[in-house]
Design brief:
Elements: H1 2-58, H2 61-66, H3 73-86, E1 92-97, E2 102-106, H4 116-128, E3 136-141, E4 155-163, E5 178-185, H5 186-193, E6 201-207, E7 210-216, E8 227-235, E9 244-252, H6 262-305, H7 319-393, H8 396-407, E10 412-417, E11 426-428, E12 447-452, E13 455-463, E14 469-476, H9 482-512, H10 523-539, E15 545-552, H11 555-562, H12 564-580, E16 587-592, E17 595-601, H13 605-621, E18 624-626, E19 632-634, E20 637-643, H14 652-671
Antiparallel strand pairs: 1-2, 1-5, 3-4, 4-5, 6-7, 6-9, 8-9, 10-11, 10-14, 12-13, 13-14, 15-17, 15-20, 16-17, 18-19
Helix pairs in contact: 1-6, 6-7, 7-8, 7-9, 11-12
Length: about 675
Amino acid sequence: MVFVAVLPASIIGGLLIKQQTEVETNYRLDLIDRLSTTLKQEFNYRFYLLSTALDVLSRDRLLVQGIDDFFLTSHVDATLENLVDNTPLIQAAYLVNADWNEVENYNGINGIKSFESLKSLVTVRVDTTKSIGNQWVFNYDAEQLIPKKYNPSRKGVVIGVPIFQSTLTEGLKRKPLGYLIVIVPVENIIKVLRPYLKDGEHVVFKHDGMDNISVYKGKLDPAVPTVSKTEKVTIANKYISEPMFYEAEVFMNKYLGENPFTNSLKILSIVTVIIVMLALLTATISYRWFAKPLTYLMDSVRACLSGSYSIPDKDLRFAELIMVNDLIQKMTSTIKAQFDDLEDKNTKLMSFNEQLEKKVHEKTLQLTQTLQREEKRRTMLQSLLSFSNKLQHGDIHSTVMTQLVSLYPYAGWAMQLYVNQKREWVCEGINPDDLASIDVEAHCSEYFRANNNDKTFQCFKIMDTHDETLGIIVMKYPNIERDDFEVISLFVYQLSAELEGRLLNEELERIAITDPLTGLSNRKAFDVDLEEWLKVSQRYPEQYFGLFMIDVNGLKQANDEYGHHMGDQLLIDTGHLIQSVCRQTDKVYRLGGDEYAIIVKLGDNTGCELLKQRLRALLEQGHYASLPNGDKVKIHFAMGCASTESHEAQNIYQVADKAMYLDKKAFYESTGLTPR
């Protein structure tokens, strides 16, 4: 009896142990599969993010202009800094022109000469490739492309992206304006992948032509058995022209030993087979004595379950089984009566369900239509919320038309703005000739309808806070619902607020840097421009510029003798006279009081001398500032100039100012007048 009680428990325990061992074994094998898959996906995902950032940056308009425009160097530097700081793989970035001369770099080496091999590789591929991608990936080994502190191993990956003036039709060839080069050192790849490893795990990336890249965490114990798996890793996406292939071998310190319970389970299995055979023999012998009456009883139960309530009499042999058979017969009679009653009620219930389903269908249809209207309204309102932000960063015409077409693609749209001299229609799905009959001034309300033959136009005026008309939006559609009218009206209000804000900002910016009396640029504009020229001169000493300092003679005498109206007219006419002899590239400023300044672009000594002669000629010709009553005062001024060709850029202001005061002193000494 003890043996019979213990044997089933032993068998069940052995099976459970075997199952647990198999689960652990499968888990260990699955663990390295998941680790290798995770590392592969992370490797590809990091380079995809990098390629996406480079693709967006290569089309940056200010970056393209920054290759040739010195004034945009600060933007280029900030752009490269943002790229490196926000992309973990990148350690340094270079912007070079078409001749591979450095324009700007971040975290790089100034004046680096190590791009000769990369130059030939990228240039040939850009000129000959027919693929869609325009990013080129290369390995480098034993080359110092960035400071050693960032890349002690002097190996890694470099990506080159050509920068074009504009995007042309696919397949056409054009010469790049320059190239954006980013450096991905091995150290950054290790830093990105290491968080995914645990102690005792490591991965080795292999590639022809360079040393292996090993990423590990903790200390590696050569004596500990390992399991490994090899994965093919590819740096490839829609931006990369030629993929780069690596072989990644992942190692894990996990010992997969032999199952210690296998032999015991074999013995238990043999014993179990013997016991089962004995049990079958015993069951066969006892069937005729005990199992056959149970079979008769089960046949009766099955008959009841199948709907047959006629149970034949059988020799059940045991009194207990006979009592159970009588009970089953009573139950069949009761079940049959209940079944008949249930069938009648079911018929009534089916009729009620059909009516209920019909009503539910009608209500569901109404609710679905209501939800669709609300969903459409919510989508439109969400679109309008993002519309204001898009207006602040994009072209008004294209942004507005794109938004309108996305809201109501089934209608035609047109827009005309009055904020500039060119009042042209921008249309989408409307012929501009059909809009000639729309007279905005003939309607006082902000909304009106207009008809042209069989076409109906819904017109919405764009009004500012002073009820001035800034433009009009026209919708070609017969009728619009009230919800649509409210959405479009809200759209027009957002557009009018943005237009009015832009006009106000433009006017404020103009006032901030303009002298109100003469209309020339003021002292604030002069300080900003001079600072920019000082930065350009510091970075590119061969780009000369000149500075003239001018002071009007006799301003106080004119104010004292004829009044301040004459003084103001003298300042206005002097500014216009100076500007008349300057080139379009030169810029004239009124610094305040009777002081003026001129910044001469590309002003070397010769150019400054020529401008100085033209100003002297003005004084010799004898020009006058006059009032309507006939009073007039001769225009005369003292001037001093200096060029960065002869003087340090930081001292040019002092040199020119000193020369001007010497000229002013000479004037008063030669005329015998006393300066006041």
